[in-house]
Amino acid sequence: MSEAQQQEWRPKSSLLMITIAVMLATFVEVLNSSIANVALKTIAGSFSISDDESLWIVTLFLIASSVLLPATDWCCATFGRKKFLIFCLSIFAISAVVCGLAPNFEIMLLGRICQGLGGGCLLPLSQAILLESYPRERQGEAMAIFSTGVTIAPIIGPVLGGWLTTNYSWNYVFFVSIPFCLASIIMSAKFIEDPPYMQSRQAVKFDSFGFILLIVWISCFQVMVDNGQKNGWFDSDYICRLGFISLIAFVLFVWWELKCKNPLVDLKIFKNWNYTFGTTIITMVFGIAYGSIAILPQFLQAMLGYTSFLSGIAAAPMGFGTCLGTVWSVISEKLGLRAQIFIGIVIFSIGCYMFSNLNLAISMGNVVLPNIVLGIGMTSVIIPTTTIIFSYVAKNEMTNASALQNLVKNVGCAIGTSSVGVLVSRYSQVHQSHLVDKLTMTNPVFAEKIHVLSSNFMQMGHDFITAQQMALGNIYHQLIKQSMICAYMSAYKVYAFAVLFVLPLTFILKKYNMKQK
Question: Which CATH class is domain 268-517?
Fold first, then answer.
């Protein structure tokens, strides 16, 4: 099929119906990456397992979601994209029922694995369908819709999950996905169609060796980042072994995919430097955003005593920010997409830096504003970057390019989320060491504080020795709390400056391609 014919093809169904169908699929997959997190303690109690064991509910879902991503293009060529989309949604819905009705922990894990396998391909499928269905001049609009769904869903997840768990039971955390899946299946069957070039594609031999290497790489990597902090990272032989196996499997996977005649994924897409640089920007922003989403509830619950539901409410305004960012992307088209990306990165960095002014006396309003700024910055980067990237990707490469981008993004998000524990732990030690140096009797402020506290405790009836010990204990408790708050502030400063490293890439990106290749 000629490129001209590919360019001229348009779906027969309404773009609105197609958009709703695929966005329901996108929303439900991203929602499930975070909705179960707040219910883990409740689920652990229900199955009489430890909190560490309950983390496998999230870990196995993320592993399964990432494993099938690179095989998306092969599955579409073999079964047809429309059929494969409906199949994935069906597996996802059935697995949600299994998870919600699971009689024991083993069945729960099996259901989560199947749910991850069914949901992993939904993002690249939805993105590819939107890009191919919308006319060339409206692809920016398509990516705005897609990016909004991708960024809002993980924010809604903890809030909805906390509300369902508190007011009903943890089972509804999984059941809530089923109506979305059924609606998407019905609409996909009726309104989505495969483009002519995809209907004429011939299935190739499945790259089983590459798939095995991918499973080993992703599995070891995800388990490593999920368990690294509690095991002391590379001080642990267990984490070192996982890291070594993951690295070897990754190197072999790249080598094999480059030399294989019919690879699982076409890594040659990375020769497209626009795609590579744009994917790097998106991965960095998503990684830091997910790190921020993970670090905020920890701070609010550990330092300010928020419940999981209230901490989710405090983080929810980021969704409002993404909507504002979408509006900004539309009204600022005349600036050019590269200028939008540059401004978006700066806004995102400012939002992270605003969080570095946290203290123990803040109100929820002090959390809301930085979240809105983060949401604006995030969307202002993702939408124009995605539009530029795929304007230089041929239509018959859309599914492969989208799958690879989502795989790299998932790796970035895993690193970003695991960085929370590392940064807070390391910086709390640094700040604690720094503050301890000030707590000596040669420091008149410290000596005066001890004297005042000791006097107060003695007035309560304690003897002098006990009063002094209680005063020192009080000071130590404040020391730990202050070192932790300083650690959270430092972590956000690291995020604020880290995202600026991709700022020069905005000058390397090519301008928006008005004629898609």
Answer: mainly alpha
